[in-house]
Write a structure and sequence with these properties.
CATH topology: TIM Barrel
Shape: globular
Bound molecules: zinc ion
Number of strands: 8
Structural class: alpha/beta
Mean pLDDT: 97
Largest sheet: 8 strands, parallel
Order of helices and strands: EHEHEHEHEHEHEHEHH
Length: 260
Amino acid sequence: MIWDLHCHLNGVEGRTPDEKIVRMLEYADRMNVGKLVFYMGWPFLADPSPDELRSQNDQVLQAISHWSDRALGFAYVSARYVDESLAEIERCITNGPMVGIKLWIAAKCADEQIDPIIKRCSELKVAIFQHTWIKATGNEPGESSPDDLIRLATRHPGVPLICGHTGGDWEKGIRIVRPFEQISVDTGGFDPTSGMVEMAVRELGADRVIYGSDVSGRSFGSQLAKVQGALIPDDAKRKILGGNLKRMLTPILKAKGVSV
Ligand SMILES: [Zn+2]
């Protein structure tokens, strides 16, 4: 079964979370994507307030509420608001159905202010997804690069971290995270350039590569093609398309009594 690490409700047709997820699952069905991880609602906000984080998490909670067999959720949190983010982790994960967190571009993960969030997620064994990019034109003020992520990893040895978009500029991103066994890379959200997945498997090993699409900013088809068209063994494809994410989420799913 294909598991997609990286899905958004923003940009898909529908007026409500329920309408949007139904449409998204129709698209997923065409491509045999069985499980989808959702985070962030709408609109896109570079620096959401605590109220906006809560309302976007509410949108995802509503969307996944009728689809527990298909859809998982990560709580959208921000290192700009640590106390409020810790409260969201309790609300959405400890006392709710979510199984990970999503960190976007409000604050760099290299900064130590984020540490209480990472520590709590490590205790709960939840997935930690950090957007990263290396922009030729320069990153946004709070936008992390893979270099920021390895600083975070250095402060939290052994805590599994996901390098969102493999840094966008993936040839650099793969090299930067390579020495950090705790870091996996997300294949979603950049152009489906031939050779990316091959390089990631060669340099990191198939166990550290996780398929994500970044729908609806990208299509399932273009992002699945990176993996399905890669010149790698079938066993590596199975890990990337589902096995690795399933393994990462199994402890928290089991703790919630969800059979995997
Ligand atoms: Zn995304």
